[in-house]
Amino acid sequence: MFSKPIQFIAQRPTLFAVMIIAACVVSVSALAAVPKPEIPKGKGDRCVEDTGFMRKNHMELLLHQRDETVHRGIRTKKHSLKECIDCHAVNDNQGQPVSHEDSKHFCVVCHEYASVKIDCFECHASKPRVKKAGQRL
Amino acid sequence: MSQQENKIDEYRRRFLGKGAALVGAAALAPGVILHTIAHAKPADEAVTSKVRWGFLIDANKCAENCDACVRACDEENGITKFGRPQTDAQWIRKITLRNKQTNHSITLPMMCQHCAHPPCVDVCPTGASFKRADGIVLVDKHICIGCRYCMMACPYKARSFIHETVTGQAPDVPRGKGTVESCTLCVHRVDRGETPACAEACAKTQEGPAILFGDLNDPNSKIAKRLASEPSSAVRADFRLDPGVRYQGI
Fold first, then answer.
1. Tens digits of per-residue pLDDT, B44-72?
2. pLDDT tens-digit profile of B139-156?
3. 3-state SS of chain A?
4. Residue B170: its chain A contacts at CB < 8 A?
5. Does B239 touch chain A (CB under 8 A)?
6. Is A125 on the interface with B (CB under 8 A)?
């Protein structure tokens, strides 16, 4: 009358409960096994906004600033992507800033962890420009 | 909900602001309105239509074998080539005009003419192609879908499509595959009070400055004074697009 799995549960409830708990423990330990990203420190004392606020809202700030800059020519430094890149540049072993193709890149560290694909760097430079003599940046 | 209210507030404020400005303008006698156009605008201020940026290009001073402007543009804007001249991006190019009867030829740089009535903006289906308040015609690559309609509409062949993945962009000049681009009048330099790279490079050449950059709206600017006192023409003036780039000697 019962199908096979239900018969199994009905006959051995204790064993089933133990199996469920075991499954939960395994999945929790699997979660814990993914290491938290090590977020590289930026230059200077503090970010332009609180860390918690930035973590949650940086994309909104960038989106807002993007329209202000492109359409209205407002080039304040506070929420500019270029400034983020300058301040949060991560150097490789040779002391050169890494690009977004490197997992050590400030943006990439978290975005890889959160599995969120960003397309900013398909167009935007992901590392500061090497300054030439007498050049204003 | 609150966002929508904010928007409505914003519209109301803008409307009231415009009304106040009109009343203010009417109260002042014409000519008394003070123009204070600083060359480098503060970074937090939006561009205005008080300024209209443009070029005056003297083809007589443009040497045939000189491509300093093209090289400066490529360098400044990080324009990389793939050895495919048919499809590689070009923001500025040198063209040679030859009179078939006399064989007299002149060369001149050709780029986006920053029209007052830009056809590229008219045809853009997404609003990506737009004219800034100060007359600079740009592509907002965030909303460009790469349809290339603007490229077909432009009578000056000023726009390029990026066919291939771009790397190593200049931080001031984002460029990417699948979007259309053209001369930005070095908008990032203009916004901090500098002249476009081509004009700067041209001024350093032996033949002298063939490209003059300035504010067409300011009667005291060098470019406006020269336009007022010397003959100049627009390329294909018959289209009546009112280009911001004007030529001499063509």
1. 999 999 999 999 999 999 999 999 999 99
2. 999 999 999 999 999 999
3. CCCHHHHHHHHCHHHHHHHHHHHHHHHHHHHHHCCCCCCCCCCCCCCCCCHHHHHHHHHHHHHHHHHHHHHHCCCCCCCCHHHHHHHCCCECCCCCECCCCCCCCHHHHHHHHHCCCCCHHHCCCCCCCCCCCCCCC
4. 125, 129
5. no
6. yes
